[in-house]
Every structure is written in structure tokens, then in C-alpha cells.
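DM from R.C. (forwarded with permission)

"hey, sorry to bug you on a friday — could you get me a structure for this? deadline for the figure draft is monday and I only need the backbone to look sensible"
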Amino acid sequence: MRPQATVVLDGFGTLESLRWHDGALWFCDFAHGTVHRWDTLGEPETVLEVPGRAGGLGWLPDGRMLVVSMDGRRVHRQEPDGSLVVHADLGDIAGGPVNDMLVDGQGRAYVGNFGFDYHGFVRQRPNAMLYAPPGPPRAPLACLSPEGELLGLSEPLVFPNGCFLIDEGRTLLVAETLAMRLTALPVLPDGRLGPPRPWAPLVPAWLWRSLNSPGLRGRITRRVSSLLDHQAIADRSDTPIAPGKDGTAWVANALRGECVRVGPGGTILDRVATSQRTLSCLVAGPRGDTLYAATVPTDDPERAAQLDGARLEAFVLPS
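My reply, with the result:
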């Protein structure tokens, strides 16, 4: 049996962007547009309301917080007096809602976006139909300076989502959610990102080829996947990621209830079950040994705001 995470908080809309900062766990509720801080002992506090749905989180070296406005397609900055100002406007870059963001130790921000209206699509058609050729639209990661200026764009990616740095900050590892793979991009000296390379596929190569095939095989694969409620492509994981041990990555599975530890090349090393589909995960805590998972009954923000069924779950990892 897979080990099972325990629910530690509940009653949220859609939890995302788990971060450990200044001795506490921070996260967004993008169904309600709020940012929360939790010291892991008492009740979480709501620290900020963000216009246009709160998304990715990060901090500049001087302690000011950056937070994504998903529908506003902006990155906001919280000033010392608590006010929000526009740090960067990505309206000319993002083809859909802006999503997760990584802020490095120098204050450079790497920001993804959906590339299209994902939720509008899946409200009308099964998720598997995204893979009918030419497939889902691609979108770049925006690379921002500490002052919010655009340094450059990565090559287009398939729904770039959660990311973190490896190789002592020389490589950015990003989850291409709708490509069901982890991709590595070199971080250039000026903060821009170089050409992507595969790091770990999260579905078998034969299934990926079948899912994207323009012919009869592709139509059958997409149809079967739709009938099985996505389980044909849910056996492995596909979304936000967190550093693991020894150069591995913990990956949240948006299609089923689990977090998976993945090694380079896609080897599955560990699985931890959760009670619902998992959108974000993080290894953190006072001792740095707890896997936190943000789980949801639905990732549709309109439905999630009505249900308030999102949970934060936790599992203490073996030493």
C-alpha cells in the first residue's frame, strides 16, 4: 500500500503555490483570490487579497512579496506599507491566465502562463481532446529582472507550470503540465533561459505518441482516455513540482490523488496517496521533512469557489 497523507487544513477553494518562507507555509487560494500564511500550529491567516485571482508567490531579496494576478496577467509587488503595485504586466505575453512563478535568490522571477483558456476548453470537451493535432497551444516562461523588467522569454512550452532550480541554480526544472513531462532549461548568466531539454517523461513514450497521433490510433486513444475519466494518462503525474532528495523531484498529480517522487529519466521512486487530486506539493516544514500537498475536488475555479473543498495534506517523509 502507498503511504497516505493526512488532512491538516480544509475549507478552501483551490490551493496552489505552496511556499516555505520565514518559518511558515504560505499558499494561494486562487478560487477566492487570497494569500495565506500558516505557522503549522494554529489557524492560517489571510494576509492579502489579490485582484484577478492569486497565483504564484515569491519574495525579493529585501523581503517584498511578489504575487501573480492570474486573470489580470500581471505580477504584483507588496510594498512595506502593505500596498500592491504592478511589478510586471504580462498582458502582451500571456495567451491565457498567468500561473506559477519562481523567484530566485537574486529576485529574478520566472513566470508561466496557460497559453489559452484551459478551463473554458475542458468545460465543453474532455481533457484528452486537447491532444488532437495540432495539440494544446504553447506558451513561454517570462524571465523578469528584480525590477520587473522583461529579460527575455523561453522557447514555447506546453503549459509551463511549477518549477525550481537545480545544479546550484544553473538549471531551471519546469513541469510542462499538458505535455506530461519535466523539462530542464539552462539559466544563462543574464537570467534568461536557454534551449529546453527533456528531463523526465511522465507517461510512456508509446502512450504519448498514440495520444497525439493524427490518425485512427490517436482518435481511439483520446476516446478511450475520455471514457476512462483520464485514467489512461493519469498513471503518472504531470503538474507542479518540488525538490526531492539527491536531484529528484516531487510531482503533484492533477489527475489523481497522489504525489510522486521522480528521478531523471522518469523513474518513479516513491508515491504518497492523497484524498483528492493534487495541484501543488512542497517538501518543507520546521524540520524540512514534511511533504505538503494541496488537493482539490475540482480545479475549475468557479465550481471550486462554490464547494470550498480544497485541503492541505501532509506526510512526514522517512529519514
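R.C.: lifesaver. Residues 230-239 have pLDDT under 50 and may be disordered.
me: no worries. The radius of gyration is 18 Å.
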